[in-house]
Amino acid sequence: MRVSNLFLSTQREIPSDAEIPSHQLMLRAGMIRKCASGIYAFMPIGLRSYKKVEAIIREEMDKAGAQELIMPALLPAESYQASGRWDKFGPEMFRLTDRGNRNFCLGPTHEEPFTEAVRDNIRSYKQLPVTLYQIQHKYRDEKRPRFGVIRAREFVMKDAYSFDVDEAGLDKSYDAMYKAYRAIFDKLGLDYTVVDADTGAMGGSGSQEFMVKSPIGEDAICYCDACGYAANEEKAPCGVPEKVEAEALPIEKIHTPNVKTIEELVAFMNADAKDFVKTILYNIDGKIVAVMVRGDREINETKLGNIFDATEMNLAAFDDVERITGAKVGFAGPVGLKEKITVVIDNEVSVMSNFIVGACETDYHFKNVNIGRDFEPDMVKDVRNAIPGDACPKCGKPLAMARGTEVGHIFKLGTKYSSALGCNFLDKDGKENPMIMGCYGIGVSRTLAAIIEQNHDDDGIKWPVVAAPYRAVVIPVKTNDEEQMALAEKIYNDLLAFGYEVLIDDRNERPGVKFKDADLIGIPLRITVGRRANEGIVEVKYRADGKTEEITAEAAIEAVKALV
Ligand code: ATP
Ligand code: MG
């Protein structure tokens, strides 16, 4: 491709609404174009890299025996009503009606249509197992779309679904996908870890996430160097510490004017955050619930949501907090609530004594509060996030933490969807059973961004060759120099003849501009044809490590071939 013809629009400035390198670089390199919040177009240069990633995923899926098909994105409500997810998805689902007022959604994930397709086409155990997949757009009205294609509202997912006759079969299908995922992320050169994941209200017997390590990752990973345990923070269980027996001191009300946050309280009361218990009110599917964790802990909303099988969960509105506690926000506590609400305390709180809580009265706190004497919780549960140093749930050694971006997710579903949608098969004895299912997703567009997160510098993207939009760019320094142009054209045409995807930057621009663009869009090898063109000598520069060499034109062609 001639750069003079390329639909390319690069920009030097960092777009103001892009917070992270991959998002900035995808915009600056002209890979994507924002159409609306969380909705992006892939431009030619971006689509090329996207297609490379897609091809690697497709190849490994096919190798693992999965068969590709394509489902509609526009789906009838009935399928999702039958599984219960029409309600469960809540506001994340894009819904619409047709001219006859029938309800539809834009598929957020496709367990239902796949299950129905298999239900209607497979009768006997002899036709199983089967794994089907598609690479297709998904729609989710995310609460906080951000980071470009990393958390988008329209994005591409490879989703696969396996159907087996028994658990042993599922284990095999799952393992095949696990291996295929490893092969995909290995081929893409990503630095990733596989972690145990939350199976949530979906039930199921096991689930793992493929996490690309990244300082900007939205997920926290807990891991143990001693035994190799690794889990998403959402999932990592926190045990119940031992109770330290202490004499219950008399409860005291303390005047704490305008002291609301834990930090302010710690300073005001000259105490430690560990001596406090914070009480946070949530609205879970319309019901207000009080959740209590130690002052220095964070509530784990995934664990909390699972306890209540929540569809929609938010912090309670100010009015609700003020009505129920009878105080301004910041003084909630379990003693003196004005309405009966469910009080959930964290495991760790259950062993505490003489702690400090809000007094359900503006500008007051209670000191020396004790469970049993002063209030009775409705539930004692694990509702906090694990933190570094917590005991590993497997071996007890201290856990460490890192951040990651989830690029893939594999899940043993069991019979949740097959039972709900009547996806049964006849076994050897002619008896009808629900199929045992698994589901497997990769965020294709998110993976592309993850590659950039791990492969860039101040000048731009450093594509690994497997995902590069073009392998090499030939840059004549002076387009009006006949000798330079002739050699550049020769190298370009030879490379094309060998079947390589290459660019020739034939624009009448200063070489500095061309170099900058080549670096920004991340072409792995640059071949500069300059003043030594008359000797047949060119300069090659590797984007990955910045190494440059002056070599013959023939050797430059070999260098392109040798790129891996
Ligand atoms: P997350 O916790 O990041 O919201 P999820 O659990 O909702 O992810 P899955 O439903 O398991 O994600 O989807 C499978 C894959 O699709 C994820 O591993 C991720 O790579 C990708 N994905 C999910 N949501 C988005 C999104 N909003 N934008 C881009 N990719 C996404
Ligand atoms: Mg999600």
Note down, in words, how this protein is organized.
By secondary structure, this protein is an alpha+beta fold. Helix content is 26%, strand content 29%. The chain has 14 helices and 31 strands. Strands 3, 7, 8, 9, 10, 11, 12, 21 and 24 form a 9-stranded mixed beta sheet that branches. It has a 5-stranded mixed beta sheet with strand order 16-14-15-17-20, covered by helices on one side. A hairpin with a 7-residue loop joins strand 29 (525-529) and strand 30. Helix 1 crosses helix 11 (444-454) and helix 2 (44-63) packs across helix 11 (444-454). The protein is globular and about 95 Å long. The two termini are 21 Å apart. 41% of the residues are buried. The mean pLDDT is 95. The structure holds adenosine-5'-triphosphate (ATP) and magnesium ion. Adenosine-5'-triphosphate binds next to strand 8, strand 21, strand 24 and helix 11.
